[in-house]
Amino acid sequence: MKYANELFFAALSLIMWGLVFGSKYLISVKKIIQPEGFWYLALILEASSFTFFAIAPVIHIGLLTLANTFLLGGYIYLASYCRSLSRPISRKFKWGALLALLIIGLIFQYLMQRGTFVQRVGFVMVLTDLAIIWQLIELKHLNKSRTDLPIFLIFTLCGEFIFVTTRLIILFYIDPPSFIHLYDEPSLTAAVRWILFSLTTLSYIAIIDYSMRKITIENTQTNRENQKITELLKEKERLIYGLMKANKTAATGALSASIAHELNQPLGASNLNIQYLKMKLEKGALNPELGKEILDSLEQDNQRAATIVKSLRSIFTKVEVRPQRLQVGELISRVLDIVKPELKAKNIQIQLRVDERLVIEANSAEVEQVLLNLINNAIQALANSGRLARRISIEARQVGDVTQLSVADNGDGVDHEYRPHLFELLSTTKQTGMGLGLWLCKHIITRYGGKILYEDVPGGGARFTVEFPPRPNY
């Protein structure tokens, strides 16, 4: 049948180009020059080769040089892919493969001009057999390192080797005229060639299937790892919440006696007023003025106790961590309501320099806990300093687009040996304590994109400064 060879090559080229475009999603363009992309480059070369085989009789017979060069290039790069499955591919190896391809093209062009048909086909078939043997050897190395072998590819390669050798033997046995070209080849060897190239197409289908299975396995492993990471992150959050809860208890535990004393005062006063009110009512000696005076006193005592309880509850209540607009001045006032009894008991003065217009976006309970930790640390530092005039300075100001909140004391400061690890977990300068406070402070602040810093106070003491970034960055 006239043009049978051309039609066969045209059909094969369409199939191969379909594989090229259909498998494009398996590999990005940037990876075509990487080891993982060798099979894709080989596929492009084979598709180009079959295209040149199909159009050479129509355009120019010299295109057979490109066709055969690209055909052998496909086998070489396919062998490179098999090699890349078990070992890395060096830059020298890549340049060597390209140089080999160039030399093959020059030799075949020489044979086109000076050699016979059998010499040309023999040259191509011998190199094809060597390339297939190379591929099988590389896959054998893969078997030593992995279990996921491309079994179907091994079968197709063995089939190709058999039919390449068969075609070579038949051609030498028939010994066709030296002046003919591929398209005048005897029908027997042509049929063998068609089977051979069909197996070549199946080899690339096997590679695509192998690559897809690898991607599926990798995606499954990635999903499992992501699930493990998600579980670990959740466990981390639970652990951090537990540490924060423990730290809240530790931070307020030292103040519990003073807080209890502070609560007992309004509750005790309320109880006396209630007893006095009952006595007057029983005697019928309660006039409106006295009743109003007693009720006003009860209301003040109740508000005083409620303020303390509210401040404690805002810190201990588990709420969703969602940033909200907070007045810095109000935050400081709520924390001072909690530590006020301890400040009185230890004779510590508070100096406030707060810009009441300052607003930040954060979770109120978390920021209050940071303040409580810093003020509590300052109280303990002053209690151990031996100073008579004890002072804690709290300052809130705007510096550029950053909101700064600092707590400073006039104690002894922090020793140089402790400073590098000041904000590390389980690092503490105290004889009692777990070393959670400053680490949690840093953890909370960095979640909002801020930072916490330490510096010495001139004349003695420590200053911890918390910086909140501009609100649009949250």
TrEMBL record:
Superkingdom as given in the UniProt entry: Bacteria
Reaction(s) catalysed by this chain's protein: ATP + protein L-histidine = ADP + protein N-phospho-L-histidine
GO molecular function, one term: phosphorelay sensor kinase activity
Alphabetically ordered keywords of this record: Kinase, Membrane, Phosphoprotein, Transferase, Transmembrane, Transmembrane helix
Annotated TM spans: 6-26, 61-81, 93-111, 117-137, 149-174, 194-212
Keyword Transport: no
Ranges where the Histidine kinase domain occurs: 258-472
Protein name: histidine kinase
Organism of this sequence: Polynucleobacter paneuropaeus
